[in-house]
Amino acid sequence: MAWNEPGGNKNDPWKNRGGREQGPPDLDDVFKNLFGKFGKSGGNGGGSGKSLGGIGAGILVGLLIAIWVISGFYTIREAERGVVLRFGEYHKQVEPGLRWAPTFVDSVIPVDVQSIRDQSSSGSMLTEDENVVSVQMEMQYRVVDPFRWTFAVENPEKSLSQSLDSAIRYVVGHSRMDDVLTDGREMTRQRVWEELQGIIEPYNMGVSIIDMNFRDARPPEQVKDAFDDAIAAQEDEQRFIREAEAYAREIEPRARGQVNRMNEEAQAYKERVTLEAQGEVARFEELLPQFERAPVVTRERIYLETMEEVLGNTSKILVDSKGGNNMMYLPLDKIMDRQRENAKPTSRNTLEGLQMPVTNEGGRNRNSSPTSGLRGDTFREGR
């Protein structure tokens, strides 16, 4: 049975020792007894006790010194630089590696100078044209001066966050909503970057801005559908402009070609008309002496040549009606068309087969060929 089980166990180690009840030993009494024993041994030993006390004190001091020296070793990683403070004041900056600093005298603050850090900011902001937009931007930066990063401002991360928020609100407040939401986002991002550089430069915080990202920009949810329609209309506008430019690039060379062709045709027509006019002038200059020598013959010749040119381009129908009731109808153009269709030379027998009744001068009907009638009419017209 265990000593602390109920039922009157008498095996409690703190009871019934020496015939009396006793509790757990008092720590103060333990230490008093221990130091008392050391004091008695020192008093009894005389000089030997003093030497043992000195050796113990020396060992204790050596141990403390060893612990102090060992505790001063520290390591700076490759991506870090150490800022050493001596009694709370800046002393130096150390490079990566195993280093030693006296404990309780120097303190070392490691600062990461290679990692790319990010800081974001977002919020609803009022634009220049009094519209509310929700903007989210993210900044990436890196520490380049550990001392300035540690001591230039009290809280560098918070200072950077406030500076970024201030830069975004300033730029958005001086921009139109369409520029922030649509085609002016790249310009807005660049302006925020420049504004942030101007804000943090007087503080000399020891940081370098690596990049600035425009994560999101959107209108309030209440008017989001209307803004989506506006953005779609702007995209359609740009698409129509590109299509019109493509059509212009396609049609312009064709139009220029037509213009050049018309100019060349007009120039050729001008030259042709000019040359024809000059030829007519030369012809009349040649006819003038002949007309002066024989005006009647020359006039008749000019008349015949003119009629030949005019009648050569028109359809001709010859009618012979001289007395009586019979009439000869001779469509010469039809006959010529039939000859061309047959592609054969017209024989005299073919023409003689087309005989029509013709009234002669004596009033009697006689059969004569169209050729004879044509010949007689021609001679009569010539006379």
Automatic annotation (TrEMBL):
Native source species: Alteromonas hispanica
GO biological process, one term: proteolysis
Name used for this protein in its record: Protein HflK
Domain Band per the UniProt entry, residue ranges: 71-231
Keywords of the record: Hydrolase, Membrane, Protease, Transmembrane, Transmembrane helix
Family to which this protein belongs: Belongs to the band 7/mec-2 family. HflK subfamily.
Topology with respect to the bilayer: Single-pass membrane protein
Transmembrane intervals: 55-76
Function: HflC and HflK could encode or regulate a protease.
